[in-house]
Amino acid sequence: MLPWNQSRDACQEIGGQLMLLDTVPKIEFMTGYIGHIYPDANFWHIGASDADNEGHWRWLNGAAVSDIRVTTTDQLELDQLDCSALNRKNTAIQMVRCETTRRRICEWPNLI
Question: Is this prediction's pTM over 0.90?
Fold first, then answer.
């Protein structure tokens, strides 16, 4: 388990990237899939962040994130939630602190 930046780097080191869960079917599939393998792990690093431009969420490929769950209304806390995770329990993409260690989901988009 690693923080978000190190998770991103770990995926890149093996030729991949943090997964882009940019459609509802992808979110639902991965939620079910990882739930069977790791039933006790609820949060997984994925490839979206607003660290470069606060409030403007982007996938690692530069595309805008269309739906991310806001977990607080406190602006100071929002400023610290710059990374993303799949919340398996709620089947949602959620803002999280980059420093928190979690499992990660890597993908290899250029294999097909």
Answer: no
